[in-house]
Amino acid sequence: MAVAQIWARVQGRYQRTLARCLFQKPLVMRNAMPLISFTFDDFPRSALYAGGAILKRFGMAGTYFTSFGLMGHEAPTGKIFVAEDLAELMAQGHELGCHTFHHCHSWETTPGTFEESIVENRRALERVLPGRVFQSFSYPISCPRPGTKRRMGRHFKCSRGGGQTCNLGTADLNHLSAYFLEKDAGDPARVKSMIDRTVRDRGWLILATHDVSDTPTPYGCRPAYFEEIVRYAAGSGARVLPVIGALAMARSSGSGVI
What we know:
Elements: H1 3-21, E1 26-28, E2 35-41, H2 45-57, E3 63-66, E4 74-75, E5 78-79, H3 85-91, E6 95-98, H4 111-128, E7 136-138, H5 146-155, E8 158-163, E9 170-172, E10 176-180, H6 188-201, E11 204-209, H7 223-234, E12 239-240, H8 243-252, E13 256-257
Helix pairs in contact: 2-7, 4-5, 6-7
């Protein structure tokens, strides 16, 4: 292995450790039932019209983490939503979460600039959907700097990262774990195993992806694969809710912030 690759791995592990350990907002998980949330980063149009349509068939809703600075653009995750899509998203009962205005890199962006982009995204939401507010957040691209993570705790009830695992025992509301579907290369067995673990231990599994398309980007998945996971979640015995709905359910079950 090349020295550059070794250094990149060491640096990545260092960043993930800092993001995980510092400025935590612990939530003790005492769920009466297991919880699952489906989330989409960037809000590509296919995530609503393909992914959202699948969720709707099963009577479910998801969370769409949105960067208004990407609206109407072509991004690495496909064609991003346009303003007219927001009414359809709200009509289907989905949650709109924040993803910064500029889709800021969560580690490379300074905390101050990152927070400014949060505020700008909030203002954009108010212009398009007056009275609506973001309650949840997803870190774009990477794990956050510790200073950024601390600031996000001021703006949102919870913030989601990655980690390829579920939230069990004590979760960190400033950096909730998530499981990205596209990282399993279309193998549903691994995701189903994670759902089984979540149900067994009464945890909270946040599933994440970007586009949902027959020709997905490297950051998305195919509709048939997504539907197989949704169907398995529907029959798992878990309660499937958007992020803020799941958080409310966890808290109503006796879970509490330390």
